[in-house]
Structures are given as structure tokens and as C-alpha cells.
Write a structure and sequence with these properties.
Layout (H helix, E strand, L loop, with lengths): L9 H23 L1 H5 L12 H21 L5 H38 L18 H8 L16 H10 L2 H10 L5 H19 L9 H23 L11 H13 L5 H15 L12 H8 L1 H23 L3 H4 L2 H34 L3 H4 L12
Helix pairs in contact: 1-3, 1-12, 1-13, 3-7, 3-9, 3-11, 4-13, 4-15, 6-9, 7-9, 8-9, 9-11, 10-11, 13-15
Length: about 375
């Protein structure tokens, strides 16, 4: 295999940021500010839940980028444990911090109920149904994807799915890097087949459910990401997945989402987009290399985990104050203003959680640099 110089793949970071923002807008409008999505002439926002699939593909790509030299010949127990430790350091501290905020928020509701606050009669009883002590335990263990619905911090279902798949990723990397390049397309086709079956049977790729299909979804798309990295490493398909095609690939993916139809074509489009973006050099002029877009990608994990708390507060607050959902209490104009406020709050809080929780704790908990120097993890790209 030809060795490639390590470099910062800023375009992949930017793609993660774009995906996180579109998932956030999907949740804000589909769950709370429903008049806004109903007024939309396209399916872009309703289908933007599919950007989670880009996260899974990116994880496979960047983990193969960071660990293929470690695992492609032999998986040693010490290296495997350091891999898991690095993944834990990356995802768990912020997950735990946000989960504790949700518990505090639920406790506040319980206190208001105990004090007899009138508005609480319009809000779901705290620590019941999805926000029970049982689901709190599964969230603490990061295995909540086993439920057929996501609970507490709902977007974290995908973090749970990734966490469980992480334990198999070193073996997937080892297997896929031992195969000849002629197997890349057949394996990619095999990885897509379960996604087609899931969408055909359930009607979508996970819009209203979780459970074991989401583990299959995550694993298959991580495989697509690993295969995309092999194409990047070997210089394959450069004529159809080049820097020149990066912008058209992004536009085509947005068009696919804007049109009604199945989600699997978007998954294929995301794999193509990731391969195109990986070939954009950091110094090349492109909007994905601009500082503000790259920074949005850097804080994307915080955006992804923070925004649901903002959503919950607005959703419950509307019912508490008015007795009806926010889309009934607010005119479409006020819903637009509320959307701007919610997005602004999410970005502001995400900046703080990234700076004071996510980044410091990742550095503190990750394996020592002497043990992991050979992996040369890309700071901003390694997983979501």
C-alpha cells in the first residue's frame, strides 16, 4: 500500500458541521415549529434526518484513516483497548454532561409539579415514559439504541449505535484492508443491500424508530466509509470523485434530499461526497475550507448533542405557558423568529461546551501520546 502523508482533511470537518446544522433544523421544525416545515416547498428539511448517515460514513472513513496501519495486519489487545479508550474519550464526556442537564431539567419539572404549578398539567409527567430511570440507565451505558425509540437526549441514539459498533471496527478495518481493490465495489454493494431491506420494510431509514436496524445501518455505513478511504488511499475513481466534482456532489445530495423518494440513494451520494471532499487539500480555495465553516464542523458534536435540550425547553415551555404546542401558540412569523433564537442559543452553548467540556475532557481521557503517536489521529475528523 502506498503511504499517504498525514494531513488535516478540513473539508470532512466542514461536511460534519453542515450535517449537524441540517439535522438540528430538521428537529426544530419537525418537532416544535411545524408551520415552518409545512410551508417548505421541498423535502429537504423533512429528509435531513438522513445526514446522520453521513456521520456514520465519516466515522468509518476517518477511523480507517487514523487506524489502518495499526489494525490491517494484526489486532493486538493493547492497541484495541487504546482504540476503545480514545473513542470513549471522544464521545462520552459530552454525552454524560448533556444527560445530566436533562436529568436536572426533569428534576426542575418534578419540583414544579410538587409545588402545584398550574402549567405542569399540560406537560408530560417528569421521570415517566421515555424519561424513566430504566432508560436513564441505558443512556448512561450508551446502549439506548436497543430501545425502539430514542429517549432523554434523543439524537444521542446515533452516538449509542456508533459506540456499540466501535467494538467491531478494528476487525472490519483489518478484514477490508486485506481484500484486493477489485472487491471494493462488490463489498460496497453488499453493504447497501441491508439498508434497502430496512427502508423497504419499515418505510424509512430510522425517522421514527431505533433498535437493531440502526445498528445494522451504522455498521453498513461505517463499512462504506472504510471502503471510501481505501479508494482515497489507492487513488481509485479519481475521475468520478475529484475535487472538481465536490461542489456538484454537494448540490446533487441536497437535490436528492429536496425531492421526495427513498433515502438509500442519499447514502450512496454521501459516500461519493465524502470521497470527493477527502481529496480537497487544506490550502485549496473552497468554501468548505473557510474558517467559519471548519469551526462549525469542529463544534458539530456539541451542536448535535446540545440542540435537543433547547428543543425540549421550548416545546415544554409553550405547553406550560399556553397549554398548547408551540406551533399552535405562535404564528408562522413568530415561529421563524423563535427558530433564529433557538439556532443562536444552540451555537452559543455549543461553543462553550466544546471549549470547556468536550475538547478538554477528550484530551484528558485519551490514551497518552506516546502510546498512540503511531496512529496520528486527525484532531478534528476522528468521529462524531
Amino acid at each position: 500500500m502506498n503511504a499517504l502523508p498525514r494531513q488535516e482533511l478540513t473539508a470532512l470537518t466542514s461536511l460534519r458541521g453542515i450535517a449537524a446544522v441540517l439535522v438540528m433544523l430538521h428537529h426544530f421544525t419537525m418537532v416544535v415549529l411545524k408551520d415552518l416545515v409545512q410551508a417548505s416547498p421541498t423535502s429537504l428539511i423533512p429528509k435531513s434526518y438522513l445526514w446522520v448517515d453521513l456521520f456514520f460514513i465519516l466515522s468509518g472513513f476517518v477511523l480507517a484513516y487514523g487506524y489502518h496501519t495499526t489494525f490491517h495486519q494484526r489486532i493486538q489487545p493493547g492497541q484495541y483497548l487504546r482504540f476503545i479508550q480514545a473513542r470513549f474519550a471522544r464521545i462520552y464526556p459530552l454525552h454524560l454532561f448533556m444527560l445530566m442537564l436533562f436529568v436536572a431539567y426533569e428534576s426542575l419539572q418534578w419540583l414544579l409539579s410538587d409545588l402545584g404549578a398550574q402549567g405542569m398539567s399540560h406537560v408530560e409527567a417528569p421521570f415517566t415514559k421515555g424519561q424513566s430511570l430504566y432508560t436513564l440507565k441505558t443512556n448512561l451505558l450508551l446502549i439506548q439504541t436497543i430501545h425502539w425509540r430514542a429517549y432523554w437526549n434523543e439524537p444521542a441514539w446515533s452516538i449509542s449505535a456508533e459506540w456499540m459498533i466501535y467494538f467491531t471496527l478494528p476487525f472490519l478495518i483489518a478484514i477490508l484492508f486485506r481484500l484486493r481493490s477489485t472487491w471494493i465495489l462488490p463489498i460496497a454493494a453488499l453493504a447497501i443491500i441491508p439498508l434497502i431491506i430496512i427502508e423497504t420494510y419499515f418505510g424509512d431509514l430510522g425517522l421514527y424508530y431505533a433498535g437493531w436496524p440502526m445498528l445494522i445501518r451504522c455498521a453498513c455505513e461505517a463499512i462504506l466509509g472504510i471502503l471510501a478511504y481505501r479508494c482515497y488511499q489507492l487513488g481509485l475513481f479519481s475521475h468520478i470523485a475529484s475535487v472538481k466534482l465536490l461542489t456538484p456532489a454537494l448540490i446533487l445530495n441536497l437535490v436528492l434530499l429536496a425531492l421526495p423518494g427513498p433515502g438509500v440513494p442519499s447514502v450512496i451520494g454521501f459516500a461519493w461526497l465524502v470521497l470527493c471532499a477527502s481529496r480537497l487539500q487544506q490550502h485549496q480555495p473552497h468554501f468548505l475550507n473557510t474558517n467559519w465553516v471548519v469551526y462549525m464542523g469542529s463544534v458539530s458534536y456539541s451542536i448535535y448533542l446540545v440542540h435537543w435540550l433547547i428543543l425540549d425547553i421550548v416545546k415544554d415551555g409553550a405547553r406550560f405557558l399556553t397549554g398548547v404546542p408551540a406551533d399552535q401558540a405562535l404564528t408562522p412569523t413568530l415561529q421563524g423568529i423563535m427558530l433564529i433564537i433557538m439556532v443562536g442559543l444552540t451555537f452559543g452553548i455549543s461553543h462553550l461546551t466544546y471549549r470547556y467540556i468536550e475538547n478538554p475532557m477528550r484530551k484528558r481521557l485519551k490514551p497518552s501520546s506516546k502510546k498512540t503517536r503511531s496512529q496520528s489521529e486527525v484532531r478534528h475528523n476522528i468521529d462524531s
